[in-house]
């Protein structure tokens, strides 16, 4: 009976994380004051939700075979013929969701890798190396490629050999300090492997495209890694150059008819507001520690409860 209750609690935890918890986290304002802690919490929400649904089904199946979780799970491979309807239902959930999750993650990862490979090939054809001159000791490691195009664009093409891509339009509008701030931002994406941070959430969204939590998580996590890269640029160059660079890139982008979606506008507005001098500073350390602690408990507590039940 105890295992049945735990299976229901795990299913409820998954629903809570995928629903109200992720919606609340996506709306929270404090995340801008500590994007790293917020990212860790998002990862815990995603991992906790995934493990929750898989272990809810397994627990339901184990409950048909033994009174204790470890003994029940250990008996599943040899005694699955003893499953009742609840056991079959639980095993079906675990296997179905597990296989779907793994295959959707593998498919989306392979698609992203293929897109990136073809992007790299096209980029090699239409770009030339750019070697900005930095003061001694302030060089950046990631190679920069210049594309001769009037739209002002700067982005990082991630991978084992990352590239920072800059257009002629961006070079035309940025002064030296602003250019350094923009390149520091893109370099932070490459160095921090932010693509790997976002990838599990993209897989989550692609696994359940009919549910909003995945899409919501991708939007929130994408903004958080932008904030992390902004913080790296501010540490290197100060607030002012990045602030004016974002304004100029936005204005030039709009002037030449670049993509102008609500999400793009909102994200840029949030970033510009956040790095202004009046924006509230980072969260106090005890508060950040509390968030990291909550993330740890979210991932570790449910398996611990199962192991000792
Ligand atoms: Zn960025």
Give an account of the 3D structure.
72% of the residues lie in helices and 6% in strands. With 309 residues, it is mainly alpha-helical. It folds into 2 domains: 1-129 and 285-309, no CATH class; 140-278, no CATH class. The longest helix has 42 residues, at 85-126. The model has no long low-confidence stretch (mean pLDDT 88). Zinc ion binds at residues 185, 189, 226, 229. The site of zinc ion (ZN) has 4 residues, from helix 6 and helix 8.
Quick synopsis:
The protein is mainly alpha-helical and 309 residues long.
Secondary structure class reads mainly alpha
Percent of sequence in beta strands:
5-15%
Indicate how many domains the architecture comprises.
Answer: 2
pLDDT averaged residue by residue: 88
Low-confidence stretches: none
**Helix share, percent:** over 70%
Report the oligomer. single chain
- Gyration radius (Cα, Å) is 23 Å
Distance between the termini: 11 Å
Bound molecules: zinc ion
Walk across the major sheet and give the strand order.
Answer: 1-2-4-3
Major pleated sheet: 4 strands, mixed
- The SSE string, one letter per element, is HHHHEEEEHHHHHHH
Query: Would you count the extended β strands for me?
Result: 4
What is the molecular shape?
Answer: elongated
How many helices?
A: 11
């Amino acid at each position: 009976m105890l295992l049945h209750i735990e299976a229901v609690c795990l299913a409820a935890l998954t629903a809570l994380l995928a629903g109200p918890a992720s919606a609340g986290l996506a709306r929270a304002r404090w995340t801008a004051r500590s994007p790293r802690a917020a990212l860790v919490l998002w990862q815990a929400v995603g991992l906790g939700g995934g493990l929750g649904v898989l272990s809810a089904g397994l627990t339901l199946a184990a409950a048909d075979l033994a009174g204790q979780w470890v003994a029940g799970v250990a008996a599943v491979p040899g005694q699955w013929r003893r499953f009742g309807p609840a056991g079959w239902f639980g095993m079906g959930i675990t296997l179905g969701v597990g296989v779907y999750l793994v295959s959707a993650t593998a498919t989306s990862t392979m698609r992203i890798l293929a897109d990136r490979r073809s992007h790299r090939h096209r980029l090699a054809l239409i770009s030339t190396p750019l070697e900005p001159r930095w003061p001694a000791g302030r060089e950046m490691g990631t190679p920069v490629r210049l594309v001769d195009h009037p739209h002002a664009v700067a982005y990082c093409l991630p991978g084992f050999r990352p590239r920072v891509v800059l257009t002629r339009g961006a070079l035309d509008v940025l002064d030296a300090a602003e250019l350094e701030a923009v390149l520091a931002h893109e370099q932070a994406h490459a160095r921090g492997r932010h693509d790997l941070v976002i990838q599990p959430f993209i897989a989550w969204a692609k696994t359940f495209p009919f549910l909003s939590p995945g899409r919501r998580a991708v939007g929130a996590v994408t903004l958080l890694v932008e904030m992390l890269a902004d913080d790296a640029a501010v540490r290197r160059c100060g607030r002012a150059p990045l602030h004016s660079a974002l304004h100029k890139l936005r204005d030039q982008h709009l002037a030449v008819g670049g993509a102008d979606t609500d999400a793009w506008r909102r994200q840029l507005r949030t970033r510009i507001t956040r790095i202004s001098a009046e924006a509230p500073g980072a969260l106090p350390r005890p508060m950040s520690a509390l968030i990291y602690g909550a993330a740890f408990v979210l991932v570790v507590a449910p398996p611990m409860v199962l192991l000792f039940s």
